[in-house]
Amino acid sequence: MRHRTVTAGSALAVFVAATVALSALPATASTGARSSGSPAAANSAALLAAAPTVDVNNVNAHLQQLQTFATNNGGNRATGTAGHTATTTYLQQKLQAAGFTVTTQTCTTCSGSAKNIIADWPGGDTSNTYLFGAHSDGVSAGPGINDDGSGTATLLEAALQLAANNPTMTNHVRFGWWAGEEQGLIGSKFYVNSLTTAQKTAIKAYGTFDMVASTNGGYFVTGTDAIAVKLRAYFTSISVATETSTECCSDDDSFRNAGIASSINSTGASYTKTSAQVTKWGGTAGKAYDSCYHKACDSYPSNINSTSLGRWANAELYAVWNLTTGTSPANDFSVSLSPSAASVTPGASATATVSTATTSGSAQTVALTSSGAPTGVTVSFSPASVTSGGSSTMTVATTTAAAAGSYTITVTGTGSATHTASYTLTVNGTGGGCTGAGQKLGDPGFENTTTSWTASSGVIGANTGDGAPRTGTRDAWLNGYGSTHTDTLSQSVTLPSGCSSYALSFYLKIVTAETTTTSQYDKLTVKVGGTTLQVFSNLNAGAYTLRSYNLAAFAGQTVTLTFTGVEDSGLKTSFVVDDTALTVS
């Protein structure tokens, strides 16, 4: 990114125009600092067309390649160097292999006659072209991974995902990676100057993506063009607030000066984050968005925020998809079970959670049925049909006439497609009885320095204050930091089969500084295996309270009991666990 201060007049004009554009978003849009899956956010998400998703791991793989190019070629990817040439060759090869028509335009005004990479996806009305760009070069001081490897890599992966899905195109899409940006926007100016008047008119909007993974960054969408509008809609749907930026400018200038509606989209460069922005996005106030801006430390992976990297990659593909395609992916879903097995005595029952997810397209109704249950065994679902993304409770009930043995029950979800999941039911023999009864947890009161529990640093100990134990001198204290933090506490345990009672219990104290009576800012999730027993939050604050659960569905299995405490960046909440027990009889 090239730094240039926006004048007061032009900055105000951009801000006002962007505000007008934002006012056109749905009234349900949420731009609050915190979100807990509010109805407003859900309604906004429902307005979005179903674009494919980008796996951030693929974007990171591209960044690793860019880092390697820099490392092997003098430590940078500046225009005119071998590191930059390797970068443009990589882009060209990836895009051509995916089916793009790739033009390598030699920028004769750039250092070393470097190349612009322009990639057109076949199809769509070329008189309505949407152009998405990033600059492929960095500064000579370092590898240029956030500036602008992040924009280069997210845009490349968005293009590759478009090609992989191969939708019907209504409008035309073009991607551009410009040389010489760090020398004064030279590559993008060279490209724009090569266009005829008709070709410029055909480009309905240009969006540049420059630094989209700043480690202390925000979410800046600066412009009122069609691409900027779609980007804002995407971020609204995931409850991430955006702002316009006063940091200026990048290759968007070259297009804007040619009369093409343009925007610059980033997570920020060397300007400092304000306290208000910390409230919105987290991070550190008074610190630069990217403290490695134009420095040798702009390297992979240390100078990349993978969360914002993934969000921007998906925002870019969402904008591409919604502006240029005429089809959405086919509706599809998945089905899974947790737990996927149980052991029961004749006359007893077991339950499992049937989870569904929308894997592409839009959500749909999924009807649940089963097959393979033996005589004396019945399977029911509550509810019997769900909307993909929802779940149902499956109850497997046996009579005293159920024969001993192991049976595979197939759970089938039927919607626009059919998917199955398998459940293994073991019916115990009536003469086997209950063997191995008793207390199954090691060090249930945390009083011993054993290795029974696995925990985050500082969780188990002789805690005092908010974390004071209920009995004895030691307990488990999760969270209570008043900053973004995750603590875990877990123990694996084997439950014998053939017993009549499997009782898990523990005492939980919740102490919070939160004042809300409606929002779950800090949460403790209790799980056995992949099954969530209960989620507690700051709203459940109170003294030590006994919590009890029936784990009969896990008989005959080795499972892991897990407590996971997640605390946000605001006020603190402590989750204190003591006097646990898992008694089998």
From TrEMBL:
It comes from Actinoplanes regularis. Belongs to the peptidase M28 family. M28A subfamily. The keyword Coiled coil does not apply. This is Aminopeptidase S. Keywords: Aminopeptidase, Hydrolase, Metal-binding, Protease, Signal. Coiled coil: none annotated. Residues 1-29 form the signal peptide. One of its GO terms (molecular function) is metalloexopeptidase activity. Pfam families: Peptidase_M28. Residues 116-318 form the Peptidase M28 domain. GO terms for biological process: proteolysis. The keyword Protease applies.
